[in-house]
Fold this protein.
Amino acid sequence: MDSILLIKGNVKYTITLDPGVWIFDDRRVDLTTYFNTERKIKENLEEYTKSISKHWDREIREGAIYPPTKKSEKTFLKEQILTGTFGIPLRDFLTNSSPAEDAKFLTVVSEEDEITLPIEKAYDSILGFSLEGKPLREDGPVHFYFGDASNQHNPIKRVKGFIVV
């Protein structure tokens, strides 16, 4: 139960986070390249619509293609998951907690310290949960990275939870 985190405080819903299952989440990002590439916030509905439209157009032109059967593709994806360094954006979790309109800050609670940052910056942050395919057991369960990469090489470690103030 040490790996369970909460988003609580000035929110409508307290959110429970379990980093152990994020490896299967499609929102995960590769931390080895994430801070070096240009990012933009994607609108979920717009992204979904474009994805479905692209798929539909391809099916019209080429016919239906069933899930990949090539062993090499499956092996590559499996190997990537087993050896990758991953994180997940905090944005969706924070949004789902429905912070109150007067919420201004997010406090990141770790074993050593409590760091408070403006909630706007918190929406851009990343929670690192995997290092070279292994969970962060010694200094985890997550590492907290600011969205501007200012602490990319020295993230906040031993995070225990989040409090919206």
